[in-house]
Design brief:
By secondary structure, the protein is an alpha+beta fold. Helix content is 23%, strand content 34%.
């Protein structure tokens, strides 16, 4: 009986605390992600494909350009295939990001939507990922071949919680990769505040009410077990 009650209480606690966490909608292909961004939910979007920079342009760790801060030494390169030619982004001085490597981008204005293409030979899911600072939400990339090719991956998300930074990485043993078409929408561009209106965070008052009910049930069950 006691084990059963403890299980019930644990499940309720997980449910109540889960209500306060951000909701994230993940996307495994560019078409659906861009359709969501262009559907009217956001007034505008920004696409950084690094095509306006000359080949071999470098951004040192800590550099802030066009509202984006790079937290690794990176290199604009046309050495490898980029879905939007001619340039993609790789690590300096290799022209690509080695397996197991990560790069962090932070944004001067918080964002709520983020998507990026991975130029890689890998066709395995979960080799590459994006992680936000918001509750450590992680979205794994999926095979989404570039037009006319049989390779390429994509990962994207829309969150109801403002995101100030995104970390991109790969698993050890995966192929190296380049990045292209980093697409994002700032929170200030959303028609109704951060993220989808159908995924509004639970208000603190509701969370407190749920916690109070949980506490009363604990007291009641203790009395029953005595």
């Amino acid at each position: 009986m006691k084990k059963y009650v403890i299980f019930i209480l644990g499940a309720m606690l997980l449910f109540i605390t889960g209500l306060a966490h951000a909701s994230v909608i993940s996307f495994d292909n560019r078409v659906s992600f861009n359709a969501a961004i262009d559907s009217g939910l956001f007034k505008d979007k920004t696409v950084e494909g690094w095509d306006t920079y000359p080949d071999l342009t470098t951004f040192s760790s800590g550099s802030s350009v066009n509202g984006i801060t790079y937290h690794s030494d990176v290199l604009v390169t046309d050495k490898y295939f980029a879905p939007s030619a001619p340039n993609g982004l790789g690590q300096s001085p290799y022209h690509y990001f080695p397996a197991g490597d990560t790069i962090e981008f932070s944004f001067n204005n918080p964002i709520v939507a983020f998507g990026i293409s991975f130029s890689t030979w890998s066709k395995d899911g979960e080799d590459y990922w994006i992680k936000t600072n918001s509750d450590d939400d992680t979205v794994f990339a999926s095979l989404d071949p570039f037009p006319g090719h049989n390779f390429g991956q994509f990962a994207g998300l829309i969150s109801d919680s403002a995101i100030s930074s995104v970390i991109i990485g790969s698993e050890k043993g995966a192929f190296g990769f380049n990045l292209d078409d980093m697409t994002y929408a700032a929170a200030s561009d959303s028609d109704s505040g951060p993220g989808p209106t159908s995924h509004t965070p639970i208000p603190p008052t509701v969370f407190l009410l749920g916690s109070g009910i949980f506490g009363l049930m604990v007291i009641r069950i203790r009395k029953v077990l005595r």
